Amino acid sequence: MERKEFRELTSVEDARELVDNIKVQPQVTVLPIEEAAGHIIAEDILSGLDVPAFNRSVKDGYAVRAKDTYQASEPAPTELKVIGAIPAGCEDSFFVDDGEAVEISTGAPIPEGVDAVVMVESTKQSGDSLFVYLPVHINENIMRAGTDIMKGERILRKNTRIGSREIGVMASIGMDKVPVKKLAVGIISTGSELIRPGEKLGISKIYDANSYAIAAAIEECGGTPRIYGIVRDEEKLMEEALDRAISECDIVLTSGSTSAGAGDIMYMIIERKGETLTHGIAIKPGKPVVIGMINNVPTIGLPGNPTSALSIFNEFVAPIIYNSLGVKPSFKTKITAVMGTGIRSGGREELFPVGVVRGKVYPADKTSGAITTLSDADGIFEIRPHTEYIEPGEEVEVTMFGNVRSPDLMLVGGQCPGIDLLEEMTGLTFRTLNMGSSAGFTAMSGGIADIACVNMVDVDGNYNSSVLKRMNLDNVVLVKGYRREQGLIFTPDNHIYGLEDIINLQIINRNRGSGTRALLDREMGLLAEGKGISKSEMIKSLKGYNSGSKTHRSVCDAVKSGKVDVGFGLRAAAEEAGLEFIPLAEDEFDFVIRKDLLEIEEIQNFLAVLRSEEFSKKLPEGISTYEMTGSIISSF
Predict the structure, then answer these.
(1) What are the tens digits of pLDDT across the range 201-215?
(2) Which CATH number fits domain 27-51+148-182: 3.90.950.10, 3.90.105.10, 3.40.50.1370, 3.40.50.880?
């Protein structure tokens, strides 16, 4: 073969553009959960159950009726009768009546009749008598079923890299198998001077470092390395190894034999068998790199020098793997950021989970019983024992987790499939807390969120502006979003033709503070007014009206499973679930955005997509933009 000289090197910019256009379709395989760490999730993971699945105690203490403790004090404790004990895992049934209490362990199920748990530190037991020294309020020290995760809720997104936190979240919903993407990357180390680590080092020999360093780098990117071993500088042996790797892998990497020196022939083999896209890049270290295609398999010859090989891998190979798997580059580092909100410490050393959004730190902690604390965190920072309170704006050092990318925008408020579409089309990463419209307004008031997602209707049928006016939020704007059909969701065997038909049926409602619940309240009020009765009287006739589902999907799931007769929610969710739908109203789903963020790139991108024709076309049935979409209202 004729030797090739480096006459014209490819610029770094052109080489980057070249690899950006190389994308390989990964395979999808199902792995046992214990083998899934480091892989990329192939599809959205939805919870098949509530977490926790039952109302549970989060403290050791006594299950009581809160009203029995309201008069309790240190000088005059309230006396209750202890009727039993409930350890964690207990399946026995208990009913607690007025003046009674049951001893309960952390994680144990809450018995019937109970609405609070008083901590053991606030009590003293003598025989069957319990003396309570501190009052508790309703729901204190109780985690309600579905508080952490609601059935049907998306807990992990497609293309998420699986780490210990994701494993914990999936295990908590009972998953034992995980659909993952698999991208096989073959590694061939060439050079007659190479020997395997562990063998005796002879004269003129060196250990093969590239096979193992590159394999580790592939795993860090989410790929699956296949090491084909060392191949001597012989053309026939190189061709055989390359043919085998091409037939078995999605991408093939070689190291060594890529320069223009004597014995360096890999680049010529690649050129003969396929197409050479570039040979030689104007970068140091790592100039003698060859990028080609053989049988539609990207084949990249890396330099033999380990430092150069890893430099080229990180710069030009890793992007191909990331693009093919649909993930963002991971990193692990310490950063200095400022607190976006205050945090009060318990007076002890603490590793505190936090989210980081554009240099601001926010708590990711829910409660000690919430598994999603882990998946919502970007990193941790250490709180020293003497620190009682960390002020907003104070600098902290955060140790970032290695397999996360900090979100671009923090969204708090109502849940909607339109938000998922906005995230997909903007290419941004959202940290989305689906807590209802009221929580969105509160988050904006406290300066915690970048965007509040809201659909809160007032008595006159106006959306969101009256709440902003009442809260006197003058540092925000209201960006009009889109309209959504809301109505009754049911199975075909339930003969429902309008709101009146649900009076004696079992209903599932949305969570308190959600705009959808407020909309149903308004519709029930109008129906009651037409019948000449009070709204409260009307609501009393609805079984399950005080329930609270966090998402439209979980409403549909409850209907589809037969747990309830009817739900209230989006047409888009009903059609996705294959359920019947009767429209009752059209709400307005808007976005509250801080004024000081309006000109940043992320918000401008968000607004541009919201106003785009493509976004309007991609919205699911029952959700539509209108003439006000994207308009900004700054006075209320």
Answers:
(1) 888 888 888 899 899
(2) 3.90.105.10
